[in-house]
Structure formats: C-alpha cells, structure tokens
C-alpha cells in the first residue's frame, strides 16, 4: 500500500476521519492509530506483523527493566535488549552475506545459505528501539509506562517503511497528550505532501527507467553516458527519498504529530560535511550521537588522526546499514575519506551561507565539486556488485567520457530544473513548498502547476520507494 496509491488514499481518509472524531480522547486515538499502523504493515506482508509486535513487546519490557535497575542488572538488561535488537536485524539482513563471505574466504562449500525475506522497515524500527534503550541508559529518557503509546512509537505507519528514524524523546511525549488539528497545520501538511508526490511521481519515476537502462548496459555505453547516469541517479534518489520523507512528515502533521526532518536541501551543499548534515538527517544524526561521538571521545588522544578514524568508521557503518553488499561498504568508506581534507584544513564544522539571492561563482564552484564527489560515490551505491562498480568506473575513466552522452531527454532536464528552482526559492524554509509568505495568487498558481505536472507527467506504475529495500 504505497503513499501514491488509491488504496492508501482511501485508507488514510478513513483513518483521518475516525481519528479526529475522537479528538478529545487520546486513548481511543492511540488505539485507532496502532490498529491503522498494523493494518498498513500487514498489507505489505502479514507474516512479519508478529515480528513487529514481538519486537515492540520485548523493547517495552526491557526498557522498563533498564530504567528500573542500576549497576550490573542495568547493564544486563541493556545488553540483552541490544543483542535482541541487533541480532534480529543481523539475521534478517546480513546472515547470508556473512556466511557467503566466510565460505568464500576459506574456500568452503556453503550449505548454510537460507532464503530469508527482509521484513519491511526493520532497519528503521530497530534503530528506534536501540536509541530508546541507549537514551534510557544515559538518563535522557525515562521508560515509557504506557504500552499503547510505546507500541505506536515503534509502528507509526507514516514513517514505518522508509523513516525518518524518530527518537523517543520527540515522538513519545506527543503520543501521550491531546493533539489539536488546525487549518494552518493542515494546509502546510497538504502542501508538503503535494511536493513529495511531485518529486516521486514526476521526477524519480521518470528518471528510474533511464538510470536502470544505463547501469544495466554500462558495458556497451560511453563513459559520458555512465557519468550522466550517475548524475541522474543523484536526482532520482533525492527526489524519491526526500519525496517519501515529505509525504511522511505531511501525513504525520495531518494526525497532529511532528516527526523528524530528514532533508534540508542537500543539493546546495558546499562541501561534503554540509551535504551529510542535510542528507538523511535522521540516520546521520543517529549515528553521530550513538557511534561517532563515543568514538571521538575514545580516540581523543590521537587528535586529528582519531577524528579521521572516527569519521571513517562512522561512514563505513552508514554503508553497512544500507545492506549486505561490498559496494555499500565502499560507498561509506569513500564518503569518510572525503572528509580528510576538511579535517586537515580545520574546515569540518564551518558552515557556509549564501551571500546573495543567487550563488556567486565560488559558491557555485563549491556546489559543483561537492555534487561531483557525491555522484562519483553513488556509482558504488547503484552498482549491484564490485565487478559492476569497477566496470562503470572503467567506462567513466575511458576516452569515451569525452563523447556526447546518450539518453538525454529535454523533458527530464526540465523536471530537474523545476525541482532545483523550487528548492532554491525555499532553501531557508522548513520544506520545499513552505510558501505561506507568497501572495495567494502565486501560491494557487504553483499548486495548480504541480497538480497539472503530476496528472500529466506523473508515472504511476512504480509506487515502490528506493529506501523500502533498506
């Protein structure tokens, strides 16, 4: 049941109506919300609903135990919770990868590989559970006593399949108290959903067949075409993933809840550190708090070398989080290595602000260089195997790079231009269609334009989002 499907629209309209019918009764609202989340999840694959409920129940009881004990008992329950959460994720997502790798390393015939389906959203809700345990351990959060509230936090359907990865400190307090629906928040939510749908249906879905055609046939294409495919893939994955995030945040707003912002116009980042502060924010901030910061403290005696090691390890984990592929590991490693010049020149934490309403030549140069680095790394992200990645890079670094690329479509370039223009106009706002400051005529004209683009150019056949696979 995709956000862009008729089935989901009917589902959400029904949930929305029933939910606000009981505006004064938080408990009934939470019961309806949890039932809706479980129906939404079961619609994908009912077999894994028991795993979601079981994981929630174990996390609920272990959270209470972690918060209610000290010393060795506290560590025991914390370790048990982390082992259960990470172990479940490892089994479903990485078991076969490690078994195959071990067998290949030692030349052993592998008889242990089994067919394991990946439960929907397991990476996202597992990270919610882990952060919940660690926040209780660090006294940033108290255990949630209300099981209904906690189960909703884990299974909240707008952010179930592709995030954002919400923290307990943000969502749990909102689920405990009465929610209020206002026309202002409702209008803003619909605007954000509209922009997310435009990004997904018009841009991402239009680019997908082109990038698939390029990456699946790279051996027969010029280096310039493969490079062009990498550029298109950046816009595809940005439009797809940020489009999902926009819709998820908008749907949550319609239910009176605020969830984590996941993108902050990364296409205008002027260095790689700024890019990652603006891209998949909920994951990068999660790893910063629970992995990078502890590593920096651990390596503090090694000064810049320790900082480099912490960042590289952090990004390797980002790569591994995406899935059991060596290309993902190298994708993370390469991004970590990109940070080294910033660290050595003491520019890691310097934030660049645009000096004018239009970027200057040096600012455009910074953006261009950053996007080239990102696109270069995204070849690893797109390649299914190391052999394919090497082959793609080989084509890019061949003399055919200087030829005219194939698959250029003016229509696609026009879509990308519209995306960049809208993002640029609203780069200092909360989201890409935060245009309440515009006059009413301009607002309505833009709404009509985006709806027309969706109805006329939207590709409705591919409702799947890229990050559902993670």
UniProtKB/TrEMBL annotation:
One of its GO terms (biological process) is alginic acid biosynthetic process. It is a multi-pass membrane protein. It holds the Pfam family MBOAT. One of its GO terms (molecular function) is acyltransferase activity. The keyword Phosphoprotein does not apply. It is found in: Cell membrane. GO terms for cellular component: plasma membrane. The keyword Acyltransferase applies. The chain crosses the membrane at residues 5-22, 42-64, 76-94, 114-134, 306-322, 328-346, 367-386, 406-424, 445-467. This is D-alanyl-lipoteichoic acid acyltransferase DltB, MBOAT superfamily. It comes from Chryseobacterium wanjuense.
């Amino acid at each position: 049941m995709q956000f862009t499907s008729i089935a989901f629209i009917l589902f959400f309209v029904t949930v929305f109506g029933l939910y606000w019918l009981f505006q004064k009764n938080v408990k009934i609202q939470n019961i309806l919300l949890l039932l809706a989340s479980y129906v939404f999840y079961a619609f994908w694959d009912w077999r894994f609903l028991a795993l979601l409920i079981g994981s929630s129940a174990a996390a609920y009881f272990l959270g209470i135990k972690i918060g209610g004990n000290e010393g060795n008992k506290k560590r025991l329950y914390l370790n048990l919770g982390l082992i259960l959460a990470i172990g479940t994720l490892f089994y479903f997502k990485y078991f076969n990868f490690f078994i195959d790798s071990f067998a290949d390393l030692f030349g052993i015939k592998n008889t242990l590989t089994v067919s394991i389906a990946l439960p929907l959203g397991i990476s996202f809700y597992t990270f919610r559970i882990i952060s919940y345990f660690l926040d209780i351990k660090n006294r940033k959060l108290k255990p949630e006593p209300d099981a209904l509230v906690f189960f909703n936090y884990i299974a909240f359907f707008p952010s179930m399949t592709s995030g954002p990865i919400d923290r307990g400190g943000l969502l749990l307090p909102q689920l405990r108290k009465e929610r209020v629906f206002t026309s202002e928040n409702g209008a803003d939510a619909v605007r954000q959903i509209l922009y997310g749908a435009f990004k997904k249906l018009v841009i991402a879905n239009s680019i997908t067949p082109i990038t698939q055609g390029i990456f699946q046939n790279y051996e027969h294409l010029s280096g310039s075409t493969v490079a062009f495919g990498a550029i298109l893939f950046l816009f595809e994955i940005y439009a797809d993933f940020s489009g999902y995030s926009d819709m998820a945040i908008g749907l949550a707003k319609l239910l009176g809840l605020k969830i984590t912002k996941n993108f902050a116009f990364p296409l205008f980042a002027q260095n790689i550190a700024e890019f990652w502060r603006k891209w998949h924010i909920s994951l990068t901030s999660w790893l910063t708090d629970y992995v990078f910061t502890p590593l920096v403290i651990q390596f503090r005696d090694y000064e810049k070398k320790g900082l480099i090691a912490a960042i590289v390890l952090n990004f390797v984990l980002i790569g591994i989080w995406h899935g059991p592929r060596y290309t993902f590991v190298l994708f993370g490693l390469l991004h970590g290595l990109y940070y080294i010049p910033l660290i050595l020149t003491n520019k890691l934490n310097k934030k660049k602000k645009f000096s004018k309403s239009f970027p200057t030549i040096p600012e455009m140069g910074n953006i261009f260089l950053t996007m080239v680095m990102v696109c270069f790394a995204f070849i690893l992200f797109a390649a299914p195997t190391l052999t394919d990645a090497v082959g793609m890079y080989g084509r890019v670094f061949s003399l055919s790079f200087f030829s005219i690329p194939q698959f250029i479509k003016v229509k696609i370039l026009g879509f990308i231009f519209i995306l960049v223009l809208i993002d640029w106009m609203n780069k200092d706002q909360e989201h890409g269609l935060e245009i309440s400051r515009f006059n009413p005529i301009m607002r309505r004209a833009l709404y009509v334009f985006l709806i027309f683009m969706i109805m006329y150019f939207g590709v409705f056949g591919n409702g799947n989002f890229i990050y559902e696979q993670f």
